[in-house]
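Please go through this protein, sequence plus C-alpha coordinates, and consider how the sequence yields the C-alpha coordinates. Keep your notes short.
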Amino acid sequence: MMSKNKKIISGLALAAAAVIIMMFSTMPSAGSKEITIADLVKDGSRYEGDYIMTQGLLDKDSVKWDADQLELRFEIYEEDGGSLQVFHEGIKPDNFSEDVIVLVEGFIKENGVFEAEKVQTKCPSKYEGEDMENYDTDMHKEIYKNDKQE
Protein backbone atom coordinates (compact mmCIF):
# COMPACT_ATOMS: atom_id res chain seq x y z
CA MET A 1 0.00 0.00 0.00
CA MET A 2 1.24 3.51 -0.81
CA SER A 3 2.22 5.67 2.12
CA LYS A 4 0.35 8.92 2.70
CA ASN A 5 3.36 11.04 1.65
CA LYS A 6 3.75 9.21 -1.64
CA LYS A 7 0.06 9.76 -2.40
CA ILE A 8 0.39 13.48 -1.68
CA ILE A 9 3.54 13.78 -3.79
CA SER A 10 2.03 11.95 -6.75
CA GLY A 11 -1.13 14.04 -6.42
CA LEU A 12 0.92 17.23 -6.49
CA ALA A 13 2.92 15.98 -9.47
CA LEU A 14 -0.31 15.28 -11.37
CA ALA A 15 -1.69 18.70 -10.46
CA ALA A 16 1.53 20.38 -11.60
CA ALA A 17 1.43 18.45 -14.88
CA ALA A 18 -2.19 19.49 -15.40
CA VAL A 19 -1.32 23.16 -14.78
CA ILE A 20 1.58 23.00 -17.25
CA ILE A 21 -0.61 21.36 -19.91
CA MET A 22 -3.29 23.99 -19.34
CA MET A 23 -0.76 26.80 -19.70
CA PHE A 24 0.41 25.43 -23.01
CA SER A 25 -3.05 24.80 -24.36
CA THR A 26 -4.23 28.32 -23.56
CA MET A 27 -1.33 30.02 -25.32
CA PRO A 28 -2.60 32.12 -28.22
CA SER A 29 -0.96 29.95 -30.86
CA ALA A 30 -2.20 26.67 -29.45
CA GLY A 31 -4.17 25.79 -32.54
CA SER A 32 -1.58 26.77 -35.11
CA LYS A 33 1.04 24.63 -36.77
CA GLU A 34 4.40 26.24 -37.41
CA ILE A 35 5.33 25.81 -41.05
CA THR A 36 8.39 27.29 -42.75
CA ILE A 37 8.04 29.69 -45.66
CA ALA A 38 9.95 27.21 -47.82
CA ASP A 39 7.31 24.54 -47.15
CA LEU A 40 4.49 26.98 -47.87
CA VAL A 41 6.08 28.06 -51.16
CA LYS A 42 6.77 24.47 -52.17
CA ASP A 43 3.53 22.87 -51.05
CA GLY A 44 1.09 25.52 -49.83
CA SER A 45 -2.04 23.70 -50.99
CA ARG A 46 -1.27 20.94 -48.50
CA TYR A 47 -1.99 23.33 -45.65
CA GLU A 48 -5.19 24.89 -47.02
CA GLY A 49 -7.78 25.21 -44.28
CA ASP A 50 -5.16 24.76 -41.54
CA TYR A 51 -4.55 27.58 -39.10
CA ILE A 52 -0.81 28.01 -39.39
CA MET A 53 1.97 30.19 -38.15
CA THR A 54 5.08 31.11 -40.04
CA GLN A 55 7.78 33.72 -39.71
CA GLY A 56 10.29 35.44 -41.88
CA LEU A 57 12.19 38.63 -42.49
CA LEU A 58 10.18 41.60 -43.72
CA ASP A 59 10.78 42.74 -47.28
CA LYS A 60 10.48 46.47 -46.61
CA ASP A 61 10.00 47.33 -50.29
CA SER A 62 6.95 45.09 -50.53
CA VAL A 63 4.89 46.84 -47.85
CA LYS A 64 1.64 48.32 -49.14
CA TRP A 65 -0.54 49.94 -46.48
CA ASP A 66 -4.07 51.16 -47.17
CA ALA A 67 -5.05 53.20 -44.12
CA ASP A 68 -8.64 53.77 -45.33
CA GLN A 69 -9.37 50.09 -45.82
CA LEU A 70 -7.07 48.95 -42.99
CA GLU A 71 -5.42 46.57 -45.43
CA LEU A 72 -1.79 45.62 -45.20
CA ARG A 73 0.05 43.68 -47.87
CA PHE A 74 3.68 42.66 -47.59
CA GLU A 75 6.15 39.87 -48.21
CA ILE A 76 8.26 37.96 -45.77
CA TYR A 77 11.17 35.77 -46.76
CA GLU A 78 13.69 33.27 -45.49
CA GLU A 79 17.37 33.61 -46.32
CA ASP A 80 17.19 30.68 -48.72
CA GLY A 81 13.56 29.59 -48.64
CA GLY A 82 11.74 31.92 -50.99
CA SER A 83 9.19 34.54 -50.07
CA LEU A 84 5.56 34.61 -49.07
CA GLN A 85 2.93 37.23 -49.88
CA VAL A 86 0.87 38.20 -46.87
CA PHE A 87 -2.45 40.01 -46.63
CA HIS A 88 -3.71 41.35 -43.32
CA GLU A 89 -6.86 43.26 -42.45
CA GLY A 90 -6.10 45.37 -39.43
CA ILE A 91 -3.62 47.77 -37.94
CA LYS A 92 -0.07 47.93 -39.27
CA PRO A 93 2.51 47.17 -36.55
CA ASP A 94 4.63 50.14 -35.46
CA ASN A 95 8.10 49.14 -36.53
CA PHE A 96 6.99 47.85 -39.91
CA SER A 97 9.58 49.74 -41.92
CA GLU A 98 12.65 48.23 -40.32
CA ASP A 99 14.47 44.94 -40.65
CA VAL A 100 12.22 42.93 -38.42
CA ILE A 101 11.21 39.33 -38.12
CA VAL A 102 7.49 39.02 -38.76
CA LEU A 103 5.35 36.29 -37.21
CA VAL A 104 2.07 35.70 -38.96
CA GLU A 105 -0.81 33.43 -38.04
CA GLY A 106 -3.64 32.62 -40.38
CA PHE A 107 -4.49 30.67 -43.49
CA ILE A 108 -2.80 30.05 -46.83
CA LYS A 109 -5.17 30.67 -49.75
CA GLU A 110 -5.38 28.86 -53.10
CA ASN A 111 -3.58 31.73 -54.81
CA GLY A 112 -0.61 31.25 -52.46
CA VAL A 113 -1.29 34.44 -50.51
CA PHE A 114 -1.16 34.06 -46.75
CA GLU A 115 -4.15 35.69 -45.03
CA ALA A 116 -2.88 36.69 -41.63
CA GLU A 117 -5.23 37.10 -38.70
CA LYS A 118 -2.34 38.06 -36.45
CA VAL A 119 0.82 39.93 -37.38
CA GLN A 120 3.58 40.39 -34.83
CA THR A 121 7.06 41.76 -35.22
CA LYS A 122 10.16 41.05 -33.25
CA CYS A 123 13.50 42.68 -33.45
CA PRO A 124 16.34 40.51 -34.75
CA SER A 125 18.79 42.67 -32.78
CA LYS A 126 17.86 40.59 -29.73
CA TYR A 127 19.72 37.75 -31.40
CA GLU A 128 22.86 39.82 -31.94
CA GLY A 129 22.45 39.91 -35.69
CA GLU A 130 21.82 36.19 -35.89
CA ASP A 131 18.77 35.09 -37.74
CA MET A 132 16.45 32.63 -36.05
CA GLU A 133 17.89 29.52 -37.66
CA ASN A 134 21.38 30.23 -36.37
CA TYR A 135 20.29 31.08 -32.87
CA ASP A 136 21.32 27.86 -31.24
CA THR A 137 21.48 26.88 -27.64
CA ASP A 138 25.05 25.59 -27.95
CA MET A 139 26.26 29.07 -28.79
CA HIS A 140 24.31 30.33 -25.81
CA LYS A 141 25.94 27.74 -23.54
CA GLU A 142 29.38 28.76 -24.85
CA ILE A 143 28.71 32.41 -24.00
CA TYR A 144 27.42 31.39 -20.60
CA LYS A 145 30.45 29.17 -19.93
CA ASN A 146 32.84 31.96 -20.92
CA ASP A 147 31.04 34.43 -18.66
CA LYS A 148 31.43 32.10 -15.70
CA GLN A 149 35.19 31.66 -16.29
CA GLU A 150 35.96 35.36 -16.01
Observations:
- The chain is about 30% helix and 30% strand.
- The beta strands are 33-34, 52-66, 71-77, 83-89, 101-108, 114-122.
